[in-house]
Amino acid sequence: MFKLSDLFILIAVAISFFLSGYLWFNGYREQGIFTALWVPSILAFGIYFKVSALLARGR
Hints:
By secondary structure, the chain is mainly α. 86% of the residues lie in helices and 0% in strands. α1 runs antiparallel to α2 and α1 packs antiparallel against α3. It has helices at residues 4-25, 29-36, 38-58.
């Protein structure tokens, strides 16, 4: 069910999430918020390509 590309998307989300937490708790609050905004963007990017691949396979 999971492909290698799905794993890379999840790894990118995890790195972004932990990086934003690290920045937030070390006093770089604005950079932490900016980096935290990447998480839903990366997930939306992954979902878009997953749905596109599923629709292309169904044709």
